[in-house]
Amino acid sequence: YKSVAYVPQDNVHIAHFTVQETLYYAAQLRISESMSETDREKRVNAILTLLGLTDHADTIVGCEKLRVRGISGGELKRLSIGVEIMNLAELI
User: Fold this and answer.
1) Which residues pair with 91 in a beta bridge?
2) Which 3 state secondary structure label does DSSP give 29?
3) SS (H, E, C) 34-88
4) Residue 92: is it exposed, middle or buried by C-beta count within 10 angstroms (0-12/13-18/19+)?
5) CB-CB neighbours of 46 under 10 Å
6) Residue 90, Cβ density class (10 Å: 0-12 exposed, 13-18 middle, ≥19 buried)
7) Cα–Cα distance between 53 and 90 in angstroms, integer?
């Protein structure tokens, strides 16, 4: 496989970012610079839709340890998957 993604058990995200900001940040880090900004935004929106996170795109991620309310545990796990599949890995 040319690219592999691994979703860790712990969800490590920036608590004060929204779901969409988290995915956009992942896109900036993981996708080739040759991809246009418009295509990156399309990828982020496609992953939001694919993982059922569109309704929570503007909700902050949150963190129990910091006592910052955010998305649910299931949504958090889907966000972690979204971050890992951002570069469309062949194997997850």
Assistant:
1) 4
2) helix
3) CCCHHHHHHHHHHHHHHCCCHHHCCCECCECCCCECCCCHHHHHHHHHHHHCCCC
4) exposed
5) 12
6) exposed
7) 22
Among 12, 15, 79, smallest CA distance to 44 is for: 79
Q: What Cα–Cα distance (Å) separates residue 80 from each residue in 28, 73, 85? A: 16, 11, 9
* pLDDT 10s digits, 3-32: 777 787 777 899 999 999 999 999 999 888
- What is d(CA 21, CA 32) in angstroms, rounded to the nearest whole number? 18
Taking the C-alpha atoms of residue 56 and residue 39, their distance in angstroms, rounded to an integer, is: 21
How many other CB atoms sit within 10 Å of the CB of residue 86? 22
Q: What is the DSSP letter of 3?
A: -
Predicted model pTM: 0.87
Q: Which two tokens stand for residue 59?
A: 């909700």
